[in-house]
Automatic annotation (TrEMBL):
The chain crosses the membrane at residues 53-76, 82-106. This is Membrane protein. It comes from the Bacteria. Keywords: Membrane, Transmembrane, Transmembrane helix.
Amino acid sequence: MQIFSTFENHIFLEIAISNLEKIGIKSEDIYAVPLDNREESRKIFDTLHRSDGISLIDIAMPLATVFAVVTASIGFKLAWGPIYWGLIGAVGGFMIGFLIRLIIVLKTTKKKHRLKGRQSEVILIVDCDETKGEAVEKILWEHFALGLAKVIK
């Protein structure tokens, strides 16, 4: 039986490994693999296959509507008429809103984004007999494993 678990890189991982050795698991049957966590900055523009949930047009669309209505109303008194001025106002409002949101996103994403909460930093793989499986599971959960999975051979 193999038991896979994930841990933060913490002293509890070392204690869990020593407790596993105390119950008879050989050190050759315990594998600790460190993970490389993503620390690159987010991309601003979404693609068809990836979206980060940040919208750049959530401010731009209402501003485009407001500017279109206001400039179309004023356009009745101006030379080009309400249609042209409404379109000019819509484009101008959209651009202003887009730039405001873009500046906000760029300022808040200057820091490198990490996942919120706890992150898995080490995968611990334990080869053991099915008779020791419950004890190994108990030890791993007691020492703050973030996740656990069993594979029976």
